Amino acid sequence: MANENAQFLRLFGRRIRLGMVGGGFDSIIGETHRIAFQADGLFDLVAGAFSVNAEVSTATGKTLLVADDRNYLDYHEMAELEAARPDPIDAVVIATPPHVHSDVAITFLKCGIHVICEKPLTRTMEQALQLKKTLEDTGRIFVLTHCYSGFPMPRLARDLVASGALGRLRMIDSEFASGGAGVALEPDDLSQRHWRFRPEIAGREGILGEVGTHAYHLIRYVTGRTPSRLSARMQTFVDRREVFDNAYVDLEYPDGAVGRIWSSYVATGNQHGLSFRIFGDKASVEWREEDAEYLRFRPLREPEVLYRAGQEGTSEFVSRSARFRPGHPEGYIMAFANLYTETAFAIGAVKAGRSPEPWLKNLPGIDDGVLGMQMIEGAARSQSAGSSWVTL
Amino acid sequence: MANENAQFLRLFGRRIRLGMVGGGFDSIIGETHRIAFQADGLFDLVAGAFSVNAEVSTATGKTLLVADDRNYLDYHEMAELEAARPDPIDAVVIATPPHVHSDVAITFLKCGIHVICEKPLTRTMEQALQLKKTLEDTGRIFVLTHCYSGFPMPRLARDLVASGALGRLRMIDSEFASGGAGVALEPDDLSQRHWRFRPEIAGREGILGEVGTHAYHLIRYVTGRTPSRLSARMQTFVDRREVFDNAYVDLEYPDGAVGRIWSSYVATGNQHGLSFRIFGDKASVEWREEDAEYLRFRPLREPEVLYRAGQEGTSEFVSRSARFRPGHPEGYIMAFANLYTETAFAIGAVKAGRSPEPWLKNLPGIDDGVLGMQMIEGAARSQSAGSSWVTL
Amino acid sequence: MANENAQFLRLFGRRIRLGMVGGGFDSIIGETHRIAFQADGLFDLVAGAFSVNAEVSTATGKTLLVADDRNYLDYHEMAELEAARPDPIDAVVIATPPHVHSDVAITFLKCGIHVICEKPLTRTMEQALQLKKTLEDTGRIFVLTHCYSGFPMPRLARDLVASGALGRLRMIDSEFASGGAGVALEPDDLSQRHWRFRPEIAGREGILGEVGTHAYHLIRYVTGRTPSRLSARMQTFVDRREVFDNAYVDLEYPDGAVGRIWSSYVATGNQHGLSFRIFGDKASVEWREEDAEYLRFRPLREPEVLYRAGQEGTSEFVSRSARFRPGHPEGYIMAFANLYTETAFAIGAVKAGRSPEPWLKNLPGIDDGVLGMQMIEGAARSQSAGSSWVTL
Amino acid sequence: MANENAQFLRLFGRRIRLGMVGGGFDSIIGETHRIAFQADGLFDLVAGAFSVNAEVSTATGKTLLVADDRNYLDYHEMAELEAARPDPIDAVVIATPPHVHSDVAITFLKCGIHVICEKPLTRTMEQALQLKKTLEDTGRIFVLTHCYSGFPMPRLARDLVASGALGRLRMIDSEFASGGAGVALEPDDLSQRHWRFRPEIAGREGILGEVGTHAYHLIRYVTGRTPSRLSARMQTFVDRREVFDNAYVDLEYPDGAVGRIWSSYVATGNQHGLSFRIFGDKASVEWREEDAEYLRFRPLREPEVLYRAGQEGTSEFVSRSARFRPGHPEGYIMAFANLYTETAFAIGAVKAGRSPEPWLKNLPGIDDGVLGMQMIEGAARSQSAGSSWVTL
Prior knowledge:
4 copies of one chain form a homotetramer. Chain A is of the alpha/beta class and about 400 residues long. Chain A has helices spanning about 1-10, 30-40, 55-65, 75-85, 100-110, 125-140, 150-165, 180-185, 200, 205-225, 315-320, 330-350, 355-360, 365-385, and strands spanning about 15-20, 45-50, 90-95, 115, 140-145, 170-175, 230-235, 245-250, 260-265, 275-280, 285-290, 295-300, 305-310, 390. In chain A, helix 1 (about 1-10) packs parallel to helix 12 (about 330-350) and helix 6 (about 125-140) runs antiparallel to helix 14. The radius of gyration of chain A is 21 Å and the shape is globular. Chain A starts with a helix and ends with a strand. Chains A and D meet through helix 1, helix 2, helix 3 and helix 12 of A and helix 1, helix 2, helix 3 and helix 12 of D.
């Protein structure tokens, strides 16, 4: 990717100026975003409103070397003042809990600022549609950080499906089943609950937003297909927990393919637990994020082929997604960085008056977010109706 | 196991005399049984009616060095004549298609001959219950060859569950999803169809009998639990096929645990595709038959432990199930042989006037068969009712 | 293999009558041989002199249902009396410690009885050459049970090398590095030492005979090449041990290829520890006995191919070596059984007046044994000379 | 690591100003360094002399947004002018071929600038010792980027060895055997040879500098032991190649432990090929960079334990080395970034008047470089003397 990065900087003439809402020092995901957008050297973090806790917010900005006058406490103010500057931020990263995503995003979009937003898109479908409307009105770039689509091997899987190498798809299976202590246990002091376990913030079916939408996006990204019907059954296993901590969503596709998604916080002993297996009538592919470098391709009547990130012979798109020779594990952060760097290229294209579409078509965006919300809503309906099948 | 085999032969004074119904040279499973019961040297095959095709039957018997007067064409005659001999067979192996299992088994049981029977138990629940009745009347030994329960590592998993090492069970997931050309394709000439793809022999939901009951037995064997409700959705993907070739069965247990079984003939690129994962609140275990030597034990907050067949420190039951030092792959046939050898010990116990229960409690039997039939019946009911949940 | 077995029995008219020298109940390897030759049903054990301990010997024979008049205490007597019978044994299995192999083998060969012999061939090169001479004089079949060459995947590796798929071979690396407690520790009571740890029986460099020759044979079997020079360095790590327990042997081949063999009893935590990796200028292959079902083929510029035992598309030789569909682990005993069954076919060919060569060419024999002795002798010379390079 | 980074920035008040010598756009390693030092946000690249090719050098600096007056063509000038500035670089990264390392490093050290240097340390031992001398005189920080010591799992291995969990070490085995097309083939046009294949630049035994020193450092890092004797045999397999492309180095340690290092450019089909296995009398550990997240710990008599980066229960040092929850692959660049970030902390400590030792003790430095040169020199001596054993 080095050459493209260089070309970007030559054309853009500077790094992209980035702001951040949320992602203070008490947030894991904020730090993850920062490592991801810093790695390729195409972004400078120059502004932020990092937390609803003013102390955390200010301290975070100071430490990140944000200038005092751009270290905001309120994102409305931030949007306004940045837009009024001669050197405003080009884009904002939203790393807040999901129930405020739409407010933040709409605020910045209306100020002409591109948005990079954590998933799930919003808390409600109404918010999602409102955000989509604003986006259409403003014509800004909107990237939803379904970060796993930045790994080289799911991208190779996507190429293989598109090329027909799997034949006609039949079964599409996916899991995002974690089970580490951080999600498998409720804290002794319930006031210490992470917001994702609070029904009033994340909803009872918040597990589908937190991890389910990642799996759902990933199989849609790889297969290019969206289910038309689903059935969901969800359970709460942990004592005193008030949200679902295990969810099975069964899927049907318009063309007759079927699928399943298993989302869990209580898959004890699992680590990250994100994977997919896709079966066609000619071959299948399997990918597990825990061993993200490998893609297993299994054709009928022939031995398994073990692709590895960085190998020769893949498309330019896949090849560019790996920075190193095969054998050097790319890892999670380079996958995430791919999303950022491709977003940079899209922003650069807009600035240069070119279409950002060549980059956006490979990046998760507003429609992915809306479809994710639709899946969550459908699952909630199905669950309420005794796991009956519902149309999406 | 060597010492126990020696002890058995010393006490029994000879090898067990075995007959076989079905399992002619045109049958893969017949040969598999023979390797399995020959390996430990506790059985002699001395009689058989190997095929409905008289030519195949006779040739098979001749080649297997069965004496001409015990190389039968009809299993009724075989049962009668054997029972009348001074040196009758002790037990019969039934390796026919399932729709004749009950007739054959009942015939031999009534002649006082122990039965080792292929799965699924029967074609219909009615047959299953009739067979169970006969068994209770005759007091003979009946072993159902759910052969995968003979592998050392599922047995270790069973010990771990029973010991409480997994804590309270929550999710019980299993697959028997094959996809080799032999099951993934229909033959050009439909008259060449294997009986398992003939609806009139195996039933439309025959896939559940063929592979589904193996997975179902295995998780019941390991967890000691039987589901109380299920929902099934089954598909037929292959053109011109008249039976289901993919089946998802979702399960609920009386204590709130949930589970899934995926059975398939069209998991293209999969090989054998039998596996289970069991999650408790303290740990989980995973086993895949394709890498049958290993059991992965994953406790909360601690690193994964990779058990291997033959290692020190397991129970006498598990330890005896592996013949070799760890690192020497035991393989499928030794698992199958475990079932036969334990059956021999049970037969020896009966002959010696002792209870065979210490052996039978670890062997799949009539109740496992009936519960398997119940699962198939339940799945058929659910499928007919739009995948609704049904009580078992 | 079922069809060939049937054909063999039809032609031979009966099972092969087998005798055994050594392999009593206090021997692991004896039981392993018995499972291996029983599995396919082509052999009957009808005679034996199972131990130098008369009590063990007799009890073993009785339990194995050997007739009293063929349950010998002395192998000379056994050879003579068997040869004089109308129904003599066709072949004898030698499962004694190596220092008596040549005496036993020569005794039976001279009586016209085929020999199946444990490795290493003999204790000394002199014995080895004397045995070779006798074999040439008698024209009997001699199979050395380097059992790992019976696994399907090393046989596929052999095909791949022969086909040129690896290109010109460069590096040939092999290991047989065990580390279980059984070999890693000396017993508290030294009189309980297994003979393999007694310098007076196995020699100080006995490790090379015990495990080194297996690795050496395997790479010779797969590559079809024999080294011309070696350098050895051997260590004794365990307190009070009087033989080497770790050995590195570096190799050079006449065509410029190089290699290494690592043999160990103290590779703590390793299980069986047998593996090879062979690198050519076009591709490499890797096989590990612990995961014996797989062969990893790695071509330059292309992704790794993961062959699995039983898959389609291999030669008739490889295909016949796997009894089951891919995914059903064949395991150690089926590999060992392959050697026995192919030996049966060779014996059948001799009896029918045909050449046994089509079978013998794939079976380890006298020349492999002599070359193994040569390697041991060379390593001892090198070690004495400060690990200098010596010519074989 | 987030908290420590924040603390660093709070104390240091700004990012560390970094210069770079070498690492232009025609260099893979330059880009790798940049991603690594950018990721955690503790460094700003503000100056450089990126290439001996003036055009490449200037273009690289421009694109990397280096100010024109700090975009140098000559590193002597760069050192002088930087030292004279009020805002000089704090440290310089040396990413040139090894034969100029010492000149560059000495130049900057004499100007009071810390040095972060690619391996191998230098081209000759004389250069190495001269550099060491300068370093002692100047008291600056010197970090040698043996980047693999930044991975969490080798660090856990180091803890395990130090804790005695492996017992007394016996065998220490390591490999850095690559075989991708980039190193396995000579270019058609020999003038296009990478410098590492030019004997006049890298030496005939340059392979030991390029990859051998990485393996050598890694096992020294993990075991805390340095060999006292070695024997080397090196080959050149590729036509027209003038340097060794395969090297075996056998090692002896003062305490009786033994070891081997295999370095290769022609391990066809291997990818990165860096690994180690260390055997003690109580347990062994294995690590492979290609699956860098895992460390396999294998105790005697107990099942294997599979550690994964990010898991609970490790030391603060290991825990800090992983940024994410287990299951999120850290990857190569985070390992490399660990070295940079710990270097930042060391530089911060110096600036604050504290000892940098707590950081430096875990970072590869000048002594590691000198010992690596000593190994190369020893191997060259051994090779010249027919692979005889030489003292280090």
